[in-house]
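Pinned message: reference record for Activator of Hsp90 ATPase AHSA1-like N-terminal domain-containing protein
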Amino acid sequence: MAKFGEGDARWIVQERADGANVHNWHWAERDCLDWSRALLSKLLAGLPVLSGEGGLTLRTTTLDKLDGEAYVNIRKGKVIPGYELSLTLAWEADATTESGLVKVTGTAEVPYLADENADEDPELRITVRGDDGPLARRAKDAFIAHGKPLVIAKIRDYVAAMANGGPAKDEIDSKKISTKAAPAAVAPAPSVKVTAAPVQAPAAKEKKANGKDKEGFKTIEMTEKFNCRSKDIYEILMDDNRWKGFTQSNARISKDVGGQFSLFDGSITGVNEELQEGKLIVQKWRFGSWADGVHSTEHNLIVLQCRSGWCLMSLSQE
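Predicted structure (tokens):
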């Protein structure tokens, strides 16, 4: 393990000069208590519960109290909300009696609202202020029956808003939109000089001559770049000990033309048809589950790009 400050510079995360947390990759915490107070007040205050039904008018008035903490953590674009709150909501009821208009007031208290219980409805305690007479009990029962479901539904809206990022939601959405609208420019590939012409597999030549593949068979061609020497790629592909290491399975590979090889605990077997050290590997191989006589021929052309240090491997497989 490298000592602190002596690691490869390519793997050291540098601080940006502008201090930007690009795409919220680093851990960021946003305090949401004031935002929560504003949103809950908007959701809960002034809710009409009854509008004269049974001679009773009932509504919520104000969010009297909100205590606790609320925050949102964002890491790699993932939103992690956290909150532990208690709140008190005021309500009032009006009723017309023989003696005139009578008003009753009370509170609806949520003693514990927390992210750990986000999938559960919170406890809601309904109380009446002042005299607990017949009208007060009637208003309280009406709030329990009609007001409680409304308050719980609005609290669910708050929980959902926190899960979506709270006050950071607009920032997260704007970054998603900007990323889709203006994708990052792809840096051009380094200038390289190919020192050998690509080798066309015999199967590919036959395909062009006949104008089609054999029925039921396909020719696959692909090219990959590796930041290493060409002989390193050759040695890795022909070294059974390295195969055992990176596949965690048994492998046996002959380094001679006409020699046999076995990979992945014998699931793949084959023969080396042509070998040019550091340049070319042609192998005929098959899975043990294939029908008898069915093989695939693989041509690995390895070309060194001297000035850039890139190794280009072109593979053609039938």
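Pinned by admin. Summary line: The mean pLDDT is 77.
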